[in-house]
Amino acid sequence: MSPTTHRGGNVNRRILSIAIVAGALAAAAGATFALRASSSNEQPPAALQRARVASDALPAAALAAASQRELATAQSRMIATDTYLVPTQSASDLCLVSLLGNEMRATCNPESRFFNGRQFVYLIGEEGAPSSLTGLTIAGVARPAVAEIEAVFPGGITQSVTPSPDGGFTLAATPTALSAGEPTSISALDQAGRVLEAEPGPSK
Fold first, then answer.
1. Same domain, 171 and 79
2. Where a domain ends, among 80, 113, 146?
3. Which pTM value belongs to this model?
């Protein structure tokens, strides 16, 4: 298997990287990020305000790993392809979960201020070395005002994705973008194409 790197943006708490092998937890790693002050009465992601349906369930192979990380799998919501929101069993945190191959990535923020004053929360999964990427996926969730997520790669190569009704998005880099390297910026745009928020990419 190619080396895989996991990065998160606009996160309050931690990133978890979990390898799934036949539904079992194989390994985990974490990172800590600074907490940014914000209002505690922000609206939660839209997916939590609708009824749960059968397609919201995590794949069976991921259930054991998610449960060992104390995620409340019975309350998961699928918000985009291979991208989920899952509260912790204590209901204190809400986790953005992204599945990439045989790995599950997650970043968890306090549910009462999940966005923490930001327009979007995301994870980046990379396969291969930064200088010779074989795969790169940006997965996340955005607030209702966000109409488009745009990633800019070296040389001005641009890719964008429209969030789902739940605000979720999954962007897989094209071969052309991969050949250019890691994205230099990731931005949230409104309906008029105005930049609501821009974050430097991992290459910065």
1. no
2. 113
3. 0.81
For residue 183, give its domain range.
120-200
- d(CA 169, CA 179) in angstroms, rounded, equals 22
Q: Which residues lie across from 3 on neighbouring strands?
A: none
Out of 45, 79, 113, pick the residue that ends a domain.
113
Q: How many CA within 13 A on the CB side of residue 177?
A: 21
88-97 pLDDT tens trace = 999 889 999 9
Burial class for 3, CB neighbours closer than 10 Å (0-12, 13-18, 19+): exposed
Residue 1 inside a domain? The answer is no
Give the type of residue at 112: S
Burial class (CB in 10 A: 0-12, 13-18, 19+), 160: middle
Q: Let me know if 65 is exposed, middle or buried by CB neighbors in 10 A (0-12, 13-18, 19+).
A: buried
Assess whether 125 and 108 both reside in one domain: no
CB 185 within 8 A of CB 151: yes
In angstroms, the CA 100 to CA 125 distance is 7
